[in-house]
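Intended use. Records like the one below are meant for learning the mapping from a protein sequence to its folded structure. Do not use them to infer anything beyond what is encoded.
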Amino acid sequence: MTDAMRIHEFVTPQKRGVVALTPALRNRLHLDEPGAQLEFIEEDDGTIIVRGVLPVSVDQRWFWTDRWQAMEREADADIAAGRTTVYSSIDEMFADLDA
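Structure written out for the chain above:
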């Protein structure tokens, strides 16, 4: 992410810890979408990371597992490196797979 894309803001917690986010930040984190949540991660050095999180439908959770995401990255690398085959027909593809 470039510096031009980063948002750096200060907010003051209100009573009971309520924090109001600017519209630009809510939009950037997709917090205006239904079911959106904030994830807070405290690092060992006291840094707090805040991420916008959208719910994933139960039937789509498999796609976001570490194993599947690793396979997606591998496929993306293969495509970027040109390690693909294009077939003119399904019969040609199955013939190649059978060989």
